[in-house]
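SUBJECT: A protein chain and its fold
Encoding: whole-number codes for local backbone shapes
Chain under study, with its fold:
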Amino acid sequence: MQCKKVQNGFLIRLVKGEEIIAALSVFVEQQKIPGGFVFGLGAFKNATLGYFDSTKKEYLKNHFKEDMEFGSLTGSVSYFEGKPFIHAHVAASGPDSKAYFGHLFSATISATGEFFIIPSDARIERKADPETNLNLLDLS
């Protein structure tokens, strides 16, 4: 990982072999980022994407082993039970140019990943919501 502090946040480059969610979580913890937003693009493999089924109150997951380009990763940076929580969604495609979209559970950088984190000025927390079975932003 390489990073650079810029006026409105941090530019981060993940390298081949780094797992996106884990690496960004470690970075957030090390930099003591209280919360914010993350944006990114690049190439990954071994990606697990999910779709939330509100009837079943669970994620339906799909795994993609092949290399894919992701052109749009957007997400929030917050904390759940004291640990960084990267909530990211991604649009990606493989060699057939067919696009897939979903909640990003995990993915390993296969070439490079470029990310921008815009920190908030206050700590952002999440709490478990029994009605949806999700960890929702706590705006109380």
User: Anything to note?
Assistant: The first strand starts at residue 2 and ends at 6.
